[in-house]
Amino acid sequence: KAGVTQTPRYLIKTRGQQVTLSCSPISGHRSVSWYQQTPGQGLQFLFEYFSETQRNKGNFPGRFSGRQFSNSRSEMNVSTLELGDSALYLCASSRGRQAGDTEAFFGQGTRLTVV
Amino acid sequence: QKEVEQNSGPLSVPEGAIASLNCTYSDRGSQSFFWYRQYSGKSPELIMFIYSNGDKEDGRFTAQLNKASQYVSLLIRDSQPSDSATYLCAGVTGFQKLVFGTGTRLLVSP
Description:
The structure holds two protein chains of two kinds.
Chain A: E1 5-7, E2 10-13, E3 19-24, E4 31-38, E5 42-50, E6 53-57, E7 64-68, E8 74-78, E9 87-94, E10 105-106, E11 110-114
Chain B: E1 4-5, E2 11-14, E3 19-25, E4 33-38, E5 45-50, E6 54-58, E7 61-66, E8 71-76, E9 85-92, E10 98-100, E11 104-109
Parallel strand pairs in B: 2-11
Antiparallel strand pairs in B: 1-3, 3-8, 4-5, 4-9, 6-7, 7-8, 9-10, 9-11
């Protein structure tokens, strides 16, 4: 069974640009969550989608947005990139309708570097 | 106050010893807790989850939950150098968000 797939694995962007990251969940999983991981802050919750609806959102500025498609694949977008957006962006998928109903499995992440 | 707190470590234990990793949480509405292991440069992988008060054992790992004290722990018996990693505690808040602690770095020396 294929795991969670995130693309691309690595990205280098310049300040002011925008970026789109993609996540394909495990087959049969309908919930997708996104996290930002930095050395100082750890894993910070960005948002969660279930059946194409954003179910929850973390404390990030509006430059961070996401969506989920009917096949459960999800994308997140960051506009007007800042140096502080450099981080590992992780996507996790789970079967459950609610967070914590079932285990969440992570993809390998996208390492974003903003220069 | 962070919703899930962990000591960043590092926690150093000799091979074969018991490693005890601790986590506290602030939201009394939290019901589900997860322990993830993350090797350097890799993504987190699930080790265990626990929903009920008490202990849950899986091989060398035991998760403990005390809802009255708002405390979760992970015990690793017979620690091996390959257990050296960062261990992340996560809890589902009353707002249905999976919130992570910053992780505890474990070093197991041969």
